[in-house]
Input
Amino acid sequence: MQDARNFCIIAHIDHGKSTLADRLLEYTGTVTGKDLKEQVLDSMDLEKERGITIKSHPIRMAYRRPGGAQFVLNLIDTPGHVDFHYEVSRSLAACEGALLVVDAVQGVQAQTINNLYLALEHDLEIIPVINKIDLAAARTEFVTEQFVDLMGCDPDQILLVSAKTGQGVPELLEAICDRVPAPAGDPDAPAQALIFDSVFDSYVGAVAYVRMFDGRIAHRDVVRLCRGGDTYEVQELGWFRLARIPQKVLAAGEVGYIATGAKDVRNVRVGDTITLRDRPCAAPLPGYAVAKPMVFSGLYPTDNDDYDDLLDALQKLQLNDASLTWVKETSAALGFGFRCGFLGLLHMEIVQERLEREYDLDLICTLPNVEYEVLYRSGELVRVENPALLPGEREIAEIREPIVHASVITPKEYVGAVIQITLERRGVQTKMVYLDVERVNLEFDLPLSELVVDYYDKLKSVSRGYASLDYEYRRHQADNLVRLDLLINGDPVDALTCIVHRDNAYSWGLKLCQKLKELIPRQMFQVAIQAAIGTRVLARTTVKPFRKNVTAKCYGGDITRKRKLLEKQKEGKRRMKQVGSVEIPQEAFLAVLRVER
Amino acid sequence: MAGLYVHVPFCGSICSYCHFARTARHDPALRRRVVGAVVRELVLRQQRCAILSGGRRRLATAYVGGGTPSQLEPELIVELLAGTVGRLPAAADLEFTVEANPETLTADLAAAWRAAGVNRVSLGVQSLDPGVLRLLGRRCEPAAARRALDLACRTFARVSADWILGPGLARDRLLAELDEALDRGVEHLSLYILELHPGTALAAAVAAGRVRLAADGATEALYLACIEHLARRGFEQYEVSNFARPGRESRHNQAYWQGRPYLGLGPSASGFWGRRRYTNTADLAAYLAQVEAGAVPEAVTDPLDRAARRLEALVLPLRTRAGLPLRRLPRGALDLAQGEREGLWTIAGDCLRLTGRGYLRIDTIEARLAAAAG
Output
């Protein structure tokens, strides 16, 4: 155990985490020859394309030090995005050390700071790494100063690396061996294994990724999940290389996997502790929490015939993603679908994209929204995830919305613009700190509902891509919120209902009406579009009926052409939803997203 | 009973709005060669089809269109008619129509047609206004059109005329033109709203801003005004673009909308025969080469499956006065009450019949029906 090191890499997106991992694998000889390709650990197409890590990827490396000593290095690659905070924090709990990687050009970002605090909370040995020092625009000295300010470390504790060229990688490997503490733990104590991730495998069922803290677990042992309570016979256990390598035993200090045979990953929750049924540990390891969805959206098949396929696809995705939640939902406008809960916007986008790409589904996704707490006049408190299910105004005493604490790091020239877009979204500034002569850390309390719509895009656009954002949930807080309905020819379209602040309702309603007018094509009849709070109409517009479209001639030679045209149009109509006698194109349901304030 | 359509691809000049298969470059030798090929095409088709060769189906109607059939000299058209219509058994009351452009219809030609059995003429008048005729690229002078109308009405029992709506003629002047046609003895009118087809001279001129057409709203009003005016004159609208005195409708064109079989001969001609639709190649050189090599010159063959037949049975009757039987209407396809309220259609005798206003939105309504039919 003295020659093992468990560490992870934490970094902002694009700061070269996956490339650095590739280089470590290469220098330790873990991956050679034909397996040597980019971003070895990011296996999903989506991960490679977007350059992000969605799932944790552990790997065990054998490292021979220059003096000849043989070490085992367990690297746990963690998701980089704030949505997967919970998984990151579990991965950190499985390690003794962390490489905190910062891009030599971009410097410290909002997530770097949050990750640092997270790592410090877990009492990890932090090795600061400045990556991409080979780039011409690298500002190594400047970033060194940022690190020194941030961590209070000595400049020569910082490792300078180019993951691309390999420069500094041997020194980094040595630093990991020298500075990361060896795992503590008693191999003879009752077994304690922390689950830091889980995946579903169609052959062996749910597979838990674990860090053994105490004791040992062997093949065919009967294990129990401390919180979940279920018991399983271990089907297989072992270490991670590029593939899983079965072993006979996992002992204290090791990182590996345990295949339980459970049919559902939800029974093998991240954060739970695995112990032995016959010799259980006294208490589970700390830090278990069920990941809570923050953002909700209705997912509907464009073609109602695809409902079963969507259900099937969601079930399959959930096998590997316990944080994805959904309930069946019916919309008058969109038919049968699901209200899905996501950890955040990126998580939502990823799920939607995977459903469309990997399962070839054509989806309509409604405006993302958040979970409101509604206090009835009767005193009852109800949680509402779908604005269309909000009761009438008269029954409501108070609506509370989730407030997040957002941290933005931006070059100083964009401070004014960042503050402006945040205040426009009902943000309240709580702090402003100059990190250095160039960078400012702004902190806000901001309604999550405002953040999920377009805040991130706006932030990127006003700062020319330089500002970075991180946020975490703080509390639910009451505000003057109202339900705004969109009516088409007098019928409310539930999928377009939203909850907005009363002060913004009028301008929001007006702009929404105008946007819909642009998107709804002329039809047989006049189409009236209204925005209303209760029975009070705030804005109204109409789409005039189709003018002259008569195909004057239809004789012998025109019939085939006409029929082919109609058949082609029919395909286009599949992407339309019929609401009453009005056909609404799919894009209209996302119009709400694109309304400029 | 069946129909026969024969396409004559020659024109004296090309009209600015026309997108049909036609050529203005031809000489007597080419005309003779084409007539020979069209006659040969029927022989080739008869060799392939027992019904055609056995004469088991009689011709109810024949229609020679184009192009400009009146571009063919009398002896050639007589040869063409003899080699096509003349080779098929005809019903006693055969409706036999030939199209003509006013400036090419002469007394000799009219007499030759009549002698060959033609009993109905369709004149492509389009307008009696010099400005509109120029815009359309028509060679005809209004005076020649008037002479041709009189000649046709003197020579043939049944005369139809084509008129175009849309180039911007004022309502009263247009209605006066229609009145004049009726007064000269026309029993049938086809009114076409001018369509711009890509690749035509007119489309280019409009795109370049050299020509401005009437606004859609004005054309729409004109169309409704014509329907109303013609009804007062005893002309009933029996299809989107067609009006006739009762009993004088074109039986040939009605057969298209009723889904009856018809044979098409000549370049670009279409047919509906043996549960499939076909279209001949529109390229004249290719047409000649194929027929002369003994091949049936089809460019498109379109066998109709159940869904296709159902779709046609849905949209074609909608164009006509007979209307669409409600039992064929897909469930939930149309809001029947709203359409009646807004004057798009009437419902009577278990049929849905479009009004003039409904015809103006027929593409949208057809698309709805097609989508609802699944």
Summary: The first strand of chain A starts at residue 4 and ends at 11. The CA atoms of residues 384 and 390 of chain A lie 7 Å apart. The two ends of chain A are 59 Å apart (CA to CA).
